[in-house]
Amino acid sequence: MKCTAETTLPDEPPNAVTCGIDWARDDHAVSIVDARGREVRRVTIEHNAAGLRELRELFELLSRAGACEVAIELPSGPVVDTLLQAGITIVVISPNQLKNLRGRYGSPGNKDDRFDAFVLADTLRTDRSRLRPLLPDTAATATLRRTCRARKDRVGHRVALANQLRAHLRVVFPGVVGPFADIDSPISLAFLTRLDCQNRANWLSVTRLAAWLAGAGYCGRVDPAVLYGRLTGAPHGATGDNGAANAHLTRALVAALTSVAAQIKALDAQIAQQLALHADAHIFTSLPRSGTVRAAWLLAEIGDCRARFPTPESLACLAGVAPCTRQSGKVTHVGFRWAADKQLRDAATDFAGDSRRANPWATDLYNRAIPRGHDHPTP
């Protein structure tokens, strides 16, 4: 599905009027300027249901008069939703851009919400050829994006909890860190639920460990005798009252990890269901090693309107996976592109890191980069 909406602004603003909104937590400053850059109206609207109704009524009035363009810093939220419902064209100017634009008006170090609203409105008037309207995604894509980002947040929380648990166990129960590949794997969490301190682990023998692993549904990748050797070969953990006290924290971290793992599993099921119903699912699932979650993540972050990426390079630049070059005289500097869509960058690098396992071109590119000293991802 490709977006058919206009991807550029008209040369002149409708009815020679532009508007800027400076978004804040409690209220929103609104500025309207005419064709000569003079502020013709300034209002402040509270961030509540009544205020948003007032904002919508204001722009419905302007829209009927022919003025229907607004510059704002954020691409989403209740204010943006309200404006889109009123048929307003929205142009997003990032906070970093706005910070630099203040210097045009002689106040680069000053910060005022009402003045920022004026700067947004006037920039929309003067820099139209460089600005692009916000093209909202379909409800299916927006829902998929929220689900994918929720999963990403849960995965980050799982990693943090796993790191905390690993650091804790290295001090109070070192033997349990080594036996299994991942401290947050189901078998590792089941083991820690059953044996959460050195006192309880002392009960184990090779035979007892083998019986427990069989009952827990262990895959059998590593022989129980080897696992037992890893467990007993590590330094002895805390015992007695100290071990019992630390076991409380171990159980708390294990319970938290188990809960987060269940949440991620539920989100995976939602993502699979939402992706199956999406019209563009076949495009992204055809990519090498895209799977379900990765394909959904790419689709959600790229969005429906592919026209905003006229070339592959433009997509790479927005995702921050293309270098940033600076040239002055005979000096050229190539550096990391920090100004990018961070969410899109995460999705793109996750895909790139694993695509080398199924794509010859990506494999060759990866293999040639390693001898040059480049770090490599570990999918």
CATH architecture of the largest domain: Orthogonal Bundle
Q: SS-based structural class?
A: alpha/beta
Global morphology: elongated
Radius of gyration: 28 Å
Order of helices and strands: EEEHEHEHHHHHHHHHHHEEHH
What is the mean predicted local confidence, pLDDT? 87
GO molecular function: DNA binding; transposase activity
InterPro entries: Transp_IS110-like_N (IPR002525), Transpos_IS110 (IPR047650), Transposase_20 (IPR003346)
Domain Transposase IS116/IS110/IS902 C-terminal: 282-366
Protein name: IS110 family transposase
Description:
GO terms for molecular function: DNA binding; transposase activity. Residues 19-174 form the Transposase IS110-like N-terminal domain. It comes from Mycobacterium heckeshornense. This protein is of the alpha/beta class and 379 residues long. It folds into 3 domains: 14-136, Ribonuclease H-like superfamily/Ribonuclease H (Nucleotidyltransferase, domain 5, 2-Layer Sandwich); 141-276, Orthogonal Bundle (Helix Hairpins); 305-372, no CATH class. The chain has 15 helices and 7 strands. It has helices spanning 49-65, 78-85, 95-101, 113-126, 139-172, 186-194, 198-201, 206-216, 224-233, 240-276, 281-285, 293-302, 312-318, 342-355, 360-369, and strands spanning 18-22, 27-33, 39-46, 69-72, 89-92, 324-328, 331-335. A 5-stranded mixed β-sheet has the order 3-2-1-4-5. A two-stranded antiparallel sheet has the order 6-7. Helix 12 packs antiparallel against helix 14 (342-355). The longest helix has 37 residues, at 240-276. The chain is elongated. 28% of the residues are buried. The mean pLDDT is 87.
